[in-house]
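Much of what follows relies on a compact textual record of a protein's fold. A complete example follows; check for yourself that the lines match position by position.
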Amino acid sequence: MKAARLLLALALTVLSAAAWAEDFTVFAAASLKEALDTQAKAFEAAKGHKVAISYAASNALARQIEAGAPAALFISADIDWVDYVEQKQLTVPGSRVNLLRNELVLVAPATSATQLKIAPGFALAATIGNGRIAMANPDAVPAGKYGKAALSALGVWEAVAPKVASAENVRAALALVSRGEARFGIVYRTDANADKGVRVVGVFPPDSHPPIVYPLVMLEAAKSDTAREFARWLMAPAARATWERYGFRREPS
């Protein structure tokens, strides 16, 4: 009997390992964390496969992919960094799809009572005073690039630039505002929704910056059919409610 129980335990272990054999890794923009974690948990529960997700700024993830990181899917917060990995011939041809959209907002600490209307020439620099405005790196990180574009279009970038506290990604910028270390921050709507330590002061006009699009692409290194299944899961109509609950808008099919 003892030998039979041992064999049964061994068989169950082998079956369990087989069930999780097609684990894969997703590289995703930091702003996706709560929503994508929820999507992954639902997928794991339904399909029995483990999804590993690495979150960071899109530019950092693209560089890691270029260096040979073994990711199966890449979801960027802008089109430029997916263009970059495509130009390096690191993607599966024909697998790219625009998955989501977002909004760009100006935030302040939740305890702040400052009011400021976003408009051409608005007094952002004067309102910041001797303080700081937190942004993801405006030269490389999508959220920072969108923010710089918006402030430039509104005619205030030159005055605001010396007051920028540059962060490695949008969540790091959000944290500076939430902790009260920056008077304002420029982040995505979904980031503001995720942190009760901030409040939205205003929404940047959509025509002040390029559309905030999140492309998804399969990577050349991907060998897993399960990764393709997960990509389809994220694009399916059933996933829309979760995306929208976290503040994203699903791109039309």
